[in-house]
From TrEMBL:
Name of the gene: LOC112107386
SMART domains named in the record: acidPPc
Biased composition (Basic and acidic residues): 46-72
BP terms from Gene Ontology: lipid metabolic process
Lineage: Eukaryota, Metazoa, Chordata, Craniata, Vertebrata
This protein's name: Polyisoprenoid diphosphate/phosphate phosphohydrolase PLPP6
Keywords: Endoplasmic reticulum, Hydrolase, Lipid metabolism, Membrane, Nucleus, Transmembrane, Transmembrane helix
Enzyme Commission number: 3.6.1.68
Organism, scientific name: Terrapene triunguis (Three-toed box turtle)
Phosphatidic acid phosphatase type 2/haloperoxidase domain: residues covered: 175-286
Length: 304
């Protein structure tokens, strides 16, 4: 706990304000854990700031936002040096009614993360040009929705199961069985992370997605991005393809990711993290590769 009389000056906030709340008593707040989670989930300052900018801030929110900035703004990097300006040195010790609310002050990393997320929300909104039929690029929406289906779990699972049923070569069956494992693993891991982080989808998203499960109301990470990255690596490793086709596979994965933001389904960070997560998921698949040697029982059943 930080002593409440500590006159540590505020760290400049990402919005160029010092964030010291001038009016009103400090407002009790959650501790830094939930505060960080609310930053990641988009439910904190970044969104209240957007609300303020669009003129929808409710009475009292300004003061609340100021208090939040106050908490977020202080960090050791902003400690006054002995050569600080006289006006800083002469700063009065806050009276009890103007003291900051007690509690741990977020680190500079938290302030940096918060400003990254604020920029993410702003940038993602700008890129959401196909979020609705009446958006700037609304006429391209049907095409992007087609791309959405191409990276969806249902066609990939259905296609893999169909291939497994039809495959007659043991090598083909092995690859397809591992692809099935990879797709299921991806669904489980994405559901776990979405359920833990619970970041809401962008407010401009129209929830008209093809087949979703309950956690798909959350946006972090993008399941399409994880799947696209993982499938891309899988295909490049296990299918013998001509160079133009390999390039096409990589382009498909990248475009699926970008289309998530353009459709307004995701913020940029959801997709960026999704790509990283999908890329790493392939390492897990490689590590636990199912083969007649590592999983003889499974293959014995299959070969009967
Ligand atoms: C129901 C099945 C089998 C998969 C759900 C696939 C899905 C809807 C993922 C969500 O993707 P984003 O997180 O990119 O929106």
């Amino acid at each position: 706990m930080e002593p409440s009389s500590n006159p540590t000056p505020p760290c400049p906030t990402p919005w160029g304000r010092t964030g010291r709340s001038r009016r009103g008593p400090p407002i009790p707040h959650r501790r830094s854990g939930p505060l960080l989670v609310s930053m990641v989930t988009g439910g904190g300052r970044a969104e209240s700031r957007e609300a303020g900018r669009s003129g929808s801030r409710r009475p009292g929110e300004g003061r609340r936002a100021g208090a939040e900035e106050n908490r977020a703004g202080r960090c050791p990097a902003a400690m006054p040096s002995p050569r600080s300006s006289p006006s800083r040195r002469a700063a009065p010790i806050p009276s009890p009614s103007r003291r900051a609310a007690p509690g741990p002050s977020p680190s500079c990393a938290a302030v940096a993360l918060r400003s990254l997320l604020a920029a993410d929300l702003r940038f993602s909104r700008q890129l959401g040009v196909c979020a609705g039929e009446r958006s700037a690029w609304g006429s391209a929406r049907p095409l992007l929705r087609l791309l959405e289906v191409s990276g969806h779990g249902v066609p990939w699972l259905a296609g893999t199961l169909y291939g497994l049923g039809r495959s007659e070569s043991p090598a083909g069956r092995e690859v397809l069985l591992n692809l099935l494992f990879a797709l299921v693993l991806d669904l489980v891991l994405v559901a776990v992370v979405k359920g833990l982080v619970r970041r809401r989808r962008p407010t401009h998203n129209k929830m008209d997605m093809f087949v979703t499960i309950s956690v798909d109301k959350y946006s972090f990470p993008s399941g399409h991005a994880t799947r696209a990255a993982m499938v891309c690596r899988f295909v490049l490793h296990h299918l013998v393809l001509a160079i133009p086709l390999r390039v096409l596979v990589v382009l498909w994965a990248i475009i699926v990711g970008i289309s998530r933001v353009m459709l307004g389904r995701h913020n940029v960070t959801d997709v960026a993290f999704g790509f990283i997560m999908g890329y790493m998921q392939y390492n897990v698949v490689k590590y636990f590769w199912l083969s007649p040697l590592s999983a003889p029982a499974l293959f014995a059943v299959w070969n009967q």
